[in-house]
Design brief:
Blueprint lengths: L43 H4 L1 H31 L5 E4 L3 E4 H27 L17 H18 L5 H13 L1 H6 L23 E3 L16 E6 L9 H8 L1 E5 L8 H6 L4 E5 L11 E3 L4 E3 L6 E3 L5 E4 L8 E2 L1 E3 L5 E3 L16
Antiparallel strand pairs: 1-2, 3-4, 4-5, 5-6, 6-11, 7-8, 8-9, 9-10, 12-13
Length: 353
């Protein structure tokens, strides 16, 4: 039903002429004339009270659903165990508590917004009103009064005459921000050159991360990928996570004739080469190895490195090759490091030259 189908006496009265200032017609002298607002079209809710009641009930229903969802949020928080999981297709197994809290909160917020939008679109006035722009600058009288009030306040405060108050006030205002500056100390000490060094050093044995046993050359088969850590680094140590994040190592054994980079071959032992496990993009641990191509893939952003060619980047956002650790064999036949990495491991940082 439209306004054209309703007798004129049944239409709601207009609330005045809501038009732009002076409606005019465009011509050569005034090509951007104001055409005014289009004629106002009444909605069905403006004409039919039954339609308005239906919109009212719809808005009330949405708000009621929001209230029930909020109660459901509270009930879920109180009753659902934190360790309970459920299967939700197609997501899989997720926390029942997180799912319930997220669902009820989303419904509560959505229905409040949907109710408010439906209320505004169907029941509130939709008549367009245009006001002429007015200068935002204060009038000369207001400016003069504000200036006079300021001068009067400055005179009554005696700030110019009370030098002791003025000096101590400025001192308090100058020192107070220092309390906020002091909070910056909790950002921690500067790293210095600690990011350039790891626990690897000459004579440090390579220990299998899974078995915690030192590695011999015969323990590394051709085409296999082994993860190692420095001897003496244990998971019980307080700084284990910080140290393993820099010292994590992956070891692969290639046929010597398949190694393209001379330095890589020289820094290895009988085709066994060791590279940092930390991706040079954002520091994710690399764990996916393709035996036929000798490529390793970072699972986070798919940076790909060629372990047969100095671990250089062949795909993805990583900026540079994986650092290689020079290795050899000690007198007892165990694999050992011949020094630390010669470049920082992980993502590039401000000290990298």
């Amino acid at each position: 039903m439209s306004s054209q189908d309703i007798p004129e006496e049944n239409l709601p009265a207009e609330q005045g002429a809501h038009e732009h200032g002076a409606v005019s017609v465009a011509d050569e002298r005034n090509p951007f004339a104001d055409p005014g607002l289009p004629p106002h079209e009444h909605r069905i809710q403006d004409i039919d009270e039954r339609a308005a009641k239906r919109s009212e009930r719809t808005v009330a229903l949405l708000f009621t659903v929001s209230m029930l969802a909020t109660l459901g949020f509270i009930a879920s928080y109180v009753t659902i165990p934190a360790d309970k999981s459920i299967f939700v297709f197609p997501i899989g197994h997720i926390s029942a508590l997180n799912f319930a809290l997220g669902l009820t909160l989303a419904v509560a917020l959505f229905t409040i917004g949907a109710g408010a939008v439906h209320w505004a679109r169907t029941l509130m006035s939709d008549a367009e009103i245009a006001d002429e722009r007015h200068p935002i600058e204060a009038s000369p009288e207001v400016k003069a009064k504000v200036l006079a009030d300021f001068q009067q306040g400055a005179k009554e405060s005696a700030l110019g005459r009370r030098k002791l108050i003025r000096t101590t006030m400025f001192g308090a205002l100058a020192l107070f921000p220092l309390s906020g500056v002091m909070l910056l100390r909790d950002l921690g000490p500067l790293p210095g050159n600690s990011l350039r060094h790891t626990l690897w050093a000459k004579g440090k044995r390579l220990v299998n991360t899974n078995t915690n046993l030192p590695l011999r050359p015969e323990d590394v088969a051709v085409g296999s990928l082994t993860f190692a850590k420095p001897d003496g680094l244990n998971e019980t140590q307080e700084d284990f996570q910080n140290e393993i994040a820099k010292a994590a190592l992956m070891i692969v054994r290639l046929q010597p004739e398949n190694i393209k980079d001379k330095r890589e071959l020289d820094w290895g032992h009988e085709g066994i080469v060791a590279f940092s496990k930390i991706c040079t993009h954002v520091g994710c641990p690399i764990s996916l190895y393709e035996q036929q191509t000798h490529h390793v893939l970072c699972p986070c952003h798919q940076s790909t490195f060629d372990l047969s060619d100095g671990a250089r980047v062949i795909f993805g956002p990583a900026g540079h090759a994986l650092p290689q650790l020079r290795i050899g064999v000690d007198s007892e036949g165990y694999l050992q490091a011949l020094g630390d990495f010669e470049e920082p491991v992980g993502p590039a940082f401000w000290e990298r030259g």
